[in-house]
Every structure is written in structure tokens, then in C-alpha cells.
Write a structure and sequence with these properties.
Layout (H helix, E strand, L loop, with lengths): L1 H5 L3 H29 L13 H16 L1 H9 L5 E2 L3 H25 L3 H8 L18 H15 L4 E2 H18 L8 H6 L3 H10 L10 H5 L14
Parallel strand pairs: 1-2
Helix pairs in contact: 2-3, 2-8, 3-7, 5-7, 5-8
């Protein structure tokens, strides 16, 4: 698969990148709509009403997600970013490393974004929806989307990473974000303890404090910012 990507022209790459982002956007809408339409129990009392401004902002974020792929492509072609094929074990290790890096980085950035003026000017838009819907994942300040892309590019420039690990991570990242705004929670208490599930994120949206993690609740528990569904701070 890597060889196939390496032989793509820039326009072919851009077309595939655009199609993938549009498809993920539509699938986020469809997945959350079906869950909230047919699930017997969700955390959302009423899905947030989608405004015209919501539509335009979400489309702008999709466009940004496409455009930030261009410098990534250029850096890859220049050899600054190195993506290679690796054995299965090395691919798994790269995948774990990527998740740990972003889990911690996003916790730190998310916590900073809830500080005073940073929240007011850069992050408050995402919290317009308390009861989330299919578009909530894409409601953010464009600078947040650019920041995520910047962190990804910097990380990939450190050393060669598995191409397949990166593709798997990007898919899981999208899927995780979609399910995190779906209103469906994990019923397995052991799994819910370590995974930043929908209930974990729903508490964050409803109370605007605590539960800053994205993929897991690990860092919230370590730094004592974890808030349970009954609003009591859990100890580590």
C-alpha cells in the first residue's frame, strides 16, 4: 500500500485526501444520527440544534483538515517525514507510541484551553453543544485543527514511523471522536475506567471542568482532574 501512495501524483493525493475527509464527515453525521435515532438509551436528553453557522464552521474544519495534508505531503516527499513499512510488532509499537504521545499532548492542550481567555477565544465554540450531535466533533476554532495537525507533523518528523500505524491511528482517531459525541457509553466498568468513553466526555461538555483526556482517562486520574458521572472527583 505504501508503494501505491508513493506513486501518486500531488493531484491524485489531494483528490483521495479530499474524498476521505468528506466521507468521514458524512459518516460522522450518519453514525451519530442512527445511534441517537434508534438507541434505546443515550446520555443526550436532546441533541443540540444545528444552526447555519454550525454547518459553515464544520465545513471549514473539513477544508482545513484537507489543506493541512499538503505540507505533510511536501515534507514526506522531501524526506523530512519518513513513513516506512515495518513488521507487525514494530507497527503495533509505533501505534501505541502515537496514541500515548497524542493522549498526553491532547490532555495538556485541552486543559490549557480551559484557562480564562484561552477558553473564551479559542475553545468555547466547541462547548456550544452540551447535548452533542453528529456535527459536534467538527465544531472548533480553526486554530485548534491547525494545532492538531502541527503536533502530528512535528511528531512524524522525529523518526521513521510505520505507514500502516499512521493510517490505523488516523482512522481510530476519527472513529473515537465520532463515538465520543454519539451519546452511547461503555457498560464495562473495567474498560470505562481507563478509556475516555462517551460518558467521560459528556461530563466534560456538561460541566466544563475535568475530563480533559481524549483517548483515555489515564492522565485525568494521574493529575486528579477526573470527574465521575455523579460529579465527584475520583482519586487515582
Amino acid at each position: 500500500m505504501l508503494n501505491w501512495f508513493e506513486n501518486l501524483s500531488f493531484l491524485q493525493f489531494l483528490a483521495i485526501l479530499s474524498a476521505a475527509n468528506v466521507l468521514m464527515y458524512l459518516c460522522s453525521w450518519g453514525t451519530v444520527f442512527l445511534i441517537q435515532r434508534f438507541a434505546t438509551q443515550t446520555l443526550n436528553q436532546h441533541a443540540a440544534r444545528v444552526t447555519a453557522n454550525d454547518y459553515w464552521l464544520s465545513i471549514a474544519i473539513v477544508v482545513i483538515n484537507i489543506l493541512v495534508g499538503i505540507p505533510g505531503w511536501w515534507l514526506w516527499k522531501q524526506g523530512i517525514i519518513s513513513l516506512v513499512e515495518k513488521p507487525i510488532l514494530s507497527t503495533v509499537l509505533d501505534l501505541v507510541l502515537i496514541f500515548l504521545y497524542f493522549d498526553f499532548s491532547m490532555y495538556v492542550l485541552h486543559r490549557l484551553m480551559h484557562i480564562g481567555w484561552l477558553y473564551r477565544y479559542f475553545h468555547s465554540r466547541h462547548h456550544d453543544h452540551v447535548d452533542v450531535n453528529g456535527i459536534s466533533l467538527y465544531l472548533m476554532n480553526p486554530l485548534e485543527a491547525l494545532g492538531f495537525a502541527g503536533f502530528l507533523i512535528l511528531f512524524l518528523a522525529i523518526r521513521p514511523y510505520s505507514f500502516h500505524a499512521l493510517m490505523i491511528y488516523l482512522f481510530i482517531n476519527w472513529l473515537y471522536g465520532t463515538m465520543g459525541h454519539s451519546g452511547i457509553t461503555i457498560r464495562n466498568q473495567v474498560l470505562a475506567w481507563c478509556v475516555g468513553d462517551t460518558e467521560f466526555h459528556h461530563v466534560h461538555h456538561s460541566q466544563l471542568v475535568g475530563n480533559y483526556g481524549f483517548y483515555s482517562g489515564l492522565w485525568d486520574r494521574i493529575f486528579r482532574t477526573h470527574v465521575s458521572s455523579d460529579s465527584r472527583h475520583d482519586s487515582v
